Amino acid sequence: MISLRHVTTTFKGGDITAVDDVSLDVRRGSIHGIIGFSGAGKSTLLRNINLLERPTSGEVWVDGEELTGLSAEQLRQRRHQIGMIFQGFNLVNNHTAVANVELSLTFAGVTNRRERRRRALEALELVDLADRAKAYPAQLSGGQKQRVAIARALATKPNVLLCDEPTSALDPFTTATVLQYLADINAQLGITIVVVTHEMEVIKALADDVTVMESGAIVEQFTTEQLRSDSFRPHTAIGSYLISEGISVDKGRTGTLEVPATLATHEDVDAASVTADDAATTLQKVGN
Ligand SMILES: Nc1ncnc2c1ncn2[C@@H]1O[C@H](COP(=O)(O)OP(=O)(O)OP(=O)(O)O)[C@@H](O)[C@H]1O
Ligand SMILES: [Mg+2]
């Protein structure tokens, strides 16, 4: 469905290589998770798929067509078949929910206002938000905003949905709700989904296939079925870290920090040098 062939994306005249010779296949109808630490190149790679960020070299194929070989006008047309949602929802604040959804239809060339409204309401219905159509983003919860963004992405009837950290701004319960909508959209509308995240929970809950990125390159790939098996061992350190159970901190360690003398003990502070008056003056200044 999606095929990236030797895709490389550099910035600053080649000083930064965000995506480094990536070849990746995403199966039609699957949910493909891309995971990695901050700066690994996940967002750049995702934006390479719809050419929001045109790769410096390599080919991008979607649905049997080489996007990297299309004219600007052809590309504009094809882009409507690829929806996208973001961590920060990216809604227009002075537009109602339904007007936000209509925007994508306007960009897709749907000129009839009634048609746009009808299709926008249909898309909001999909995410159970038709009753909030007239609400402005500020009147919606984070989860509802992301559902409006999903409706906006779906309104043009895409066959691919790209999601960049779709739940990173949401609490765990709301995350589960939004992920359920994405799973339903995949199962019931047959839309292929690529989801970029640094949250292993999202991958475990949603993805069929997993790609691990580090320093712009793919370092490991596995299926979530493999991931669920007790005997599964990722072969890269980053893969192991990502599937490990959350953050672990060794509390009460000693002798690992180089502590400057002034911070070493509380008694070192020369209490006599700070008078009560000094303290009062300082506090007053801060207060003002
Ligand atoms: N427009 C840009 N100009 C210059 N450098 C960029 C640009 N976009 C991304 N980069 C750099 O490319 C690298 C990959 O960035 P990218 O945003 O793809 O990472 P990421 O994996 O999505 O990280 P995060 O998890 O923090 O979102 C980083 O070093 C980043 O600073
Ligand atoms: Mg990112």
Automatic annotation (TrEMBL):
Cross-referenced Pfam families: ABC_tran
Gene3D superfamilies: P-loop containing nucleotide triphosphate hydrolases (3.40.50.300)
Matching SMART domains: AAA
Keywords noted in UniProt: Amino-acid transport, ATP-binding, Cell membrane, Membrane, Nucleotide-binding, Translocase, Transport
Family annotation (InterPro entries): AAA+_ATPase, ABC_transporter-like_ATP-bd, ABC_transporter-like_CS, MetN_ABC_transporter-like, P-loop_NTPase
Record domain ABC transporter: where: 2-240
Protein name: ATP-binding cassette domain-containing protein
